[in-house]
Design goal:
Elements (H helix, E strand, L loop, with lengths): L4 H10 L7 E5 L2 E6 L13 H9 L3 E5 L5 H8 L3 E6 L2 H10 L4 E3 L9 E6 L13 H10 L1 E12 L23 E8 L2 E2 L3 E4 L3 H10 L4 E6 L4 E6 L1
Parallel strand pairs: 3-4, 3-6, 4-5, 6-7
Antiparallel strand pairs: 1-2, 1-8, 7-12, 8-9, 8-10, 11-12
Bound molecules: S-adenosylmethionine (SAM).
Length: 232
């Protein structure tokens, strides 16, 4: 059962109760700090590929997995019509408090309206959870597009995480696709139930897009094996 630790951390920050960060780890990596202020980043502190995604956004926009609503707020301030959705109750509360006009507690697969631009940012493929669920999610995203609509999504090729210091690979090929991770979150002494979180390299995303009739082009590479793709 999900405790919505992520949402609690966002709410604490929003309500002035920020005293520690979220700790993340995965089945292939040790503890890492996810600074909560990063989840409230202004445009100037966003990675270039997120800034690019915002610049390319047009028409009616859906921000999927909006978190605290940073991308939605920027677009809203530019005069675009934005709907933000997230499966975290705390995240939606915070997005509303920060001023996102249309923010709904809803998982992607339950969305039914149509949009000109759909944004999935900060490893947008994560919410697909695992490789076997990618086509279902892509088909659904495609069904939410208006004519000439576009999906802007970022992810990373994480093969580098399977390299040791001297460059040798310890990838176990029997283990399945290397971008499928188990993700663990903890915050203020509480642990979230394990989540599946998917990283997709560009070629795998492109192949999956072809099978559901979506075109997939790389918009730009990021600074660390990450990229922004445009699906249409
Ligand atoms: C890494 S955070 C990114 C938040 C925000 N986009 C940002 O860049 O700061 C991922 C977000 O996706 C949400 N999420 C996960 N699965 C989801 C789903 N199936 N539908 C909608 N939101 C989802 C999580 O609750 C979380 O807020």
């Amino acid at each position: 059962m999900k405790k919505d630790i992520f949402g609690k951390a966002l709410l604490d920050y929003q309500n002035g109760n920020y005293s520690e960060d979220i700790i993340t780890s995965t089945n292939i990596s040790d503890d890492d700090v996810l600074p909560i202020p990063y989840l409230f980043r202004p445009y100037s502190e966003m990675p270039k590929l997120e800034q690019k995604a915002l610049q390319l956004s047009k028409g009616q926009v859906l921000d999927v997995g909006c978190g605290s609503g940073s991308h939605s707020l920027w677009l809203q301030n530019k005069g675009l019509n934005v709907k933000a959705i997230d499966s975290s109750k705390g995240a939606i509360e915070v997005a509303k408090k920060r001023g996102v006009f249309s923010a709904e507690l809803k998982p992607l697969l339950e969305e039914t309206e149509r949009f000109d631009t759909i944004l999935l940012l900060m490893n947008g493929t994560g919410i697909f959870q695992e490789l076997s669920l990618v086509s279902q999610n892509l088909k659904h995203l495609k069904s939410l597009l208006k004519p000439n609509g576009q999906i802007l999504i970022d992810s990373s090729d994480i093969s580098y995480m399977y390299e040791d210091e001297d460059g040798g690979q310890w990838l176990d090929l029997n283990q399945g696709y290397p971008g499928e991770l188990n993700y663990y979150l903890s915050y203020k002494g509480e642990k979230e139930a394990a989540m599946k979180w998917l990283y997709l390299d560009f070629e795998t995303l492109k192949t999956a897009c072809l099978t559901v009739g979506l075109k997939c082009e790389k918009v730009m590479d990021g600074e660390h094996f990450d990229y922004l793709a445009r699906l249409y």
